[in-house]
């Protein structure tokens, strides 16, 4: 009888552990899919802006017109890389809310949104940075 009780206890604990591991796996997948790519894009943006500042300094110290033109080409390429990194960073940001069209129509086109767990627009001040214009 005692053996059966411990055997049943081990099975229940094992099933509980499997359920908790699936929750942990879901959270880990969110980190992998949502947070890590945006961190990489922000790192790229940081590196490109640092390279741009260094290229501007080199451009100021250019001794000849050919050096100046070569640096201008590098600056143009870095400017394009910065614009691409900005687009990638903007595209990778996922907000945990979605616009509320009913509230937007009542506030003249400004949507404050709803969290997945419920409405939160009543708790925001009028000039909240979380407000956005609907397009």
Describe the overall structure.
With 135 residues, the protein is mainly α. The chain has 2 domains: 24-94; 96-135, no CATH class. The chain has helices spanning 2-60, 65-92, 101-106; strands at residues 97-98, 110-111, 114-115, 118-119, 132-133. Strand 3 (114-115) and strand 4 (118-119) form a beta hairpin. It is rod-shaped, with a radius of gyration of 26 Å.
Count of individual beta strands? 5
**Mean pLDDT over all positions:** 75
The low-pLDDT segments are: 98-135
Query: How many domains would you count in the coordinates?
Result: 2
Cα distance spanning the termini: 68 Å
In short:
The protein is mainly alpha-helical. The chain has two domains: 71 residues; 40 residues, no CATH class. The chain contains three helices and five strands, in the order H-H-E-H-E-E-E-E.
Topology at a glance:
Layout: H1 2-60, H2 65-92, E1 97-98, H3 101-106, E2 110-111, E3 114-115, E4 118-119, E5 132-133
Antiparallel strand pairs: 1-3, 2-5, 3-4
Question: Which properties best describe this structure?
Answer:
135 residues; disordered C terminus; 3-stranded antiparallel β-sheet; 2 domains; mainly alpha; two-stranded antiparallel sheet
């Amino acid at each position: 009888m005692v053996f059966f009780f411990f055997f049943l206890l081990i099975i229940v604990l094992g099933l509980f552990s499997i359920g908790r591991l699936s929750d942990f796996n879901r959270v880990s997948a969110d980190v992998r899919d949502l947070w890590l790519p945006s961190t990489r894009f922000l790192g790229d943006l940081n590196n490109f802006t640092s390279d741009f500042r260094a290229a501007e300094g080199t451009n100021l110290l250019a001794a000849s017109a050919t050096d100046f033109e070569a640096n201008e080409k590098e600056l143009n390429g870095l400017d394009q890389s910065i614009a691409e990194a900005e687009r990638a960073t903007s595209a990778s940001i996922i907000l945990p809310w979605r616009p509320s069209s009913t509230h937007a129509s009542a506030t003249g086109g400004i949507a404050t949104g709803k969290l997945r767990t419920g409405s939160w627009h009543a708790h925001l001040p009028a000039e909240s940075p979380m407000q956005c214009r609907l397009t």
